[in-house]
Structures are given as C-alpha cells and as structure tokens.
Amino acid sequence: xxxxxxxxxxxxxxxxxxxxxxxxxxxxxxxxxxxxxxxxxxxxxxxxxxxxxxxxxxxxxxxxxxxxxxxxxxxxxxxxxxxxxxxxxxxxxxxxxxxxxxxxxxxxxxxxxxxxxxxxxxxxxxxxxxxxxxxxxxxxxxxxxxxxxxxxxxxxxxxxxxxxxxxxxxxxxxxxxxxxxxxxxxxxxxxxxxxxxxxxxxxxxxxxxxxxxxxxxxxxxxxxxxxxxxxxxxxxxxxxxxxxxxxxxxxxxxxxxxxxxxxxxxxxxxxxxxxxxxxxxxxxxxxxxxxxx
Length: 293
Description:
Layout (H helix, E strand, L loop, with lengths): L1 E3 L4 H12 L8 H10 L6 E7 L5 E9 L4 E7 L7 H11 L1 H6 L3 E5 L4 H9 L3 E12 L10 E2 L6 H11 L11 H8 L9 E6 L2 E11 L4 E9 L9 H14 L4 E7 L3 H10 L2 E11 L7
Helix pairs in contact: 1-2, 3-5
C-alpha cells in the first residue's frame, strides 16, 4: 500500500487535502511546503504514500530530516477498506528505518484526530504540543494602529531583534539568527509590504507579519511580535488588526492565525477581535527508538 515519494507527490497532497479535510479546514501549506522541498536537492525531504486498490491516494506521511530531528506530517483520508489508523501505521512502518536513525522524531496530525493519538502513543510517542488554527471574517471592526511596510536591507536587524525578544524560548519563532531570518524573507510567499512595522520614537517595537494562502483565499497572521518594552500598552489587538486590514486590502475575506492551545490569554484576545477556533493540530515526539507494536 506504500511507495516512496516521486514526482507526483504534490498532486497527491492536493488530492488528499481535497478529500481528507473539510473545505473550511484546508490551507495550502502541505503542497506549498513539500513542492519547494522536493525541488531542492539535498533538502532532506522524505515521504511514504498510501494508495487504495483503485490507485487513489488515501494517506501521506511526509516531512523533512535535519541533523538531529525528523518532523513528519500525517494526512489520511476516509476510505471504505482501510481504517485511518491502519493507514497511518502502515505509512510509519515504511519510514521506520529513517525514524530509527533520527535522535528525535516529531509527528503532526493536521488536524489531529483520535486515531493519530492512538497510533502515536502505541508507537512510543508522547504528546508535546497543540496548536489551534483560528479564523475570522474580514474586515474586522476593532481599531488598528499606525504601521509601515518592512524595507528589505534596512529593517532586517530591527525585525530580528524585536522578534527574538518577543518570542524568547518559542520553539518555532524564537532565537532567529540572521541566516534564519534571511531564509524566511526569501520564501516565495513573503511580501515585504505584508510585514507591518510599528515604531515608537523612530524605533521598531512591534511587527505583524502576514502570509497569503492564495489557493484557499486565506490571509494569515504568520507572526505578531511586540518588544517587551511596550508590553502592557494594549498594542496586541491593534497590531493584529493592522495586519488583517492589509490582508483585506489585498482582496481577502478570511483571516487566520495559529496559536498555542495553552495560551489562553492570546486566544481570548483573538476571540475579541472576531476569531474562532477552526481546527486543532497536535504533535507527538519520540526522542529515541521505541518498540514498534
């Protein structure tokens, strides 16, 4: 039922997105991310694909391999002959040699389902993280704050410094090096105009970094950061709204963002703007080889 990823992996991912997720839960990060990694030699991309007897894709586990970490995303569609958990189990079996060689393996269910948890726990993984995807209709009624667009080559270090102070200790966004930031700024989806900067006395103290998912017509608040020096001034909501206003000006009618499921204050803040929880993604991690049952 499995095969290694080939040239058709992106089309299979798109097929699965259409069949595995309800329309309101979809975004294009699977095909967007994997397409870029497949085309880059030595990227560490790997995948296992499951097909039904009629050839239609029914499951995909794909991800990237770093020096000491392997991150995998699981996407499985409902079908008549293979229970979802069994599909996931079989795909993980196909990737077991690569998983066993990695000091740390992280498995994501996007969105998470009970069978993700059952398979992950049985295979020796532990739950480590949960992310809510929240969405809201655009435009929103909350007031924004004055911002200006990011200027490449001029604002890079200011953005990096504010980001690292704002996201100290964050697993994804914290501790960006100049090279890390340069890589993100070079992403094909990045638009400098969509990075909105807020200044106080000529110094950048906050930013709202946006991302457009063109296929689904979604405008994402990719990251929003405020320097600790301006905490307590109530800038979080207007900074977020400034990004949503820019996205709406690009013709988008739905905003989205990701927030840690245990960050209750942030969730409440976003709900006041008009966001609601659309889906929940979860991650499980195995830090060393575990018996496969």
